[in-house]
Amino acid sequence: MTAIATSQPARTPGRLRRFWRHNGAGYLFVAPSLAFFIIFIFIPLGWSFLLSFQDFGFRESVFIGLDNYVALLRDPIFHQAALNTVIYSIFTVAVWVLVAMILATLIHPLPPRLRTFFRAAYYLPAVTSAVFIALVWKWVLNANPWGLANYLLSLFGAGPVGFISDPSPFLGANVALWSVILSSVLTIPAVGVVLYSAALAAIPRELYEAAESEGAGALAKFRYITVPLLKPVTLYVAVIYTIAAFEVFERVYVMTGGGPGYATHTIVYLIWRTGFRFSEYGLASAQAFLLFAVIATISVIQFRALRSDVEY
Amino acid sequence: MNRRGSKLITIAMALALVLAACAGPGATRGPATGPLATAPAATGPTLTAPVASEPTGTEPAGTAGPAYEGPIEWWHLGYAPGGETATSKLVDDAVAAYEARYPGIDITVTGIAFSDEGLAQLGTALATPAGPDIFRIASDRLPGYAAQGVLSPIDDYLTDEDTADIIPNLLAGVEFEGQHFAWPQWVPPIGYYVNNQLFTDAELDVPTSDWTVEEFSQLAQDVTGEGVFGFATYMGSASVNELTLLYNQGATVLNEGSTEYTLNSEAGVNGLQTLVDLFAAGAMPPDSTTLALADIEQGFIDGRFAIMTAGSGSITNLKANEVEFTILPPPIGATGEPVTVGGMGTYAVPMKDDPERMAAAHHLARYLTSADVAEDVPGWYLAPGTRQSITVSEQTPEMAAFEEMLPFVRFMPLVENWSQIDAAIHPEIQLAVSGQKSAQQALDDAGAVITPLLGE
Question: CB within 8 A of B373, min separation 6: which ones?
Answer without folding.
Answer: B94, B97, B98, B367, B380
